[in-house]
Amino acid sequence: MSRRCELTGKAVLTGNLVSHSNRKTRRRFLPNLVNVTLASEVLQRSVKLRVSANALKTVDHRGGLDAFLRKASIDELSPKAAELKRAVEKASVEKAPVAA
Questions:
Q1: Second label for 27, Cα 20 to 30 Å away, from 14, 20, 34, 39?
Q2: Can you give the pTM of this predicted structure?
């Protein structure tokens, strides 16, 4: 399992650990990933995802998983989240009333 957020695409970064004597050694900056279950109101089911804590705050700020997925680009989403985005868009089109 890769260390990548399924919603934002945030992944591992690398850099230097600089000591007091200014000696540089390589290190990794890991994203703060958490396993969460998010509820989709449009699909009327819950989904298990591995997301960063920052993405979790963003989902809450945008008003839920459905609103986050509508606004997100498919390029940055994982294959599982991209499939979820397509399902949410399809379900929201089917629920929308048809204007005559």
A1: 34
A2: 0.80
Give CA–CA dist 65/4, Å, rounded. Answer: 18
Q: Is 2 inside a domain boundary?
A: no
The per-residue pLDDT for range 37-74, each reduced to its tens digit, is: 999 999 999 999 999 999 999 999 999 999 999 999 99
Decide if 85 is inside a domain.
yes
The CA distance from 47 to 84, in Å, is: 9
CATH code of the domain containing 81: 2.30.170.40
Residue 97 has pLDDT above 70, yes or no: no
Q: Are 81 and 70 in contact (CB under 8 A)?
A: no
Residue 87 CA to its chain's centroid (Å): 16
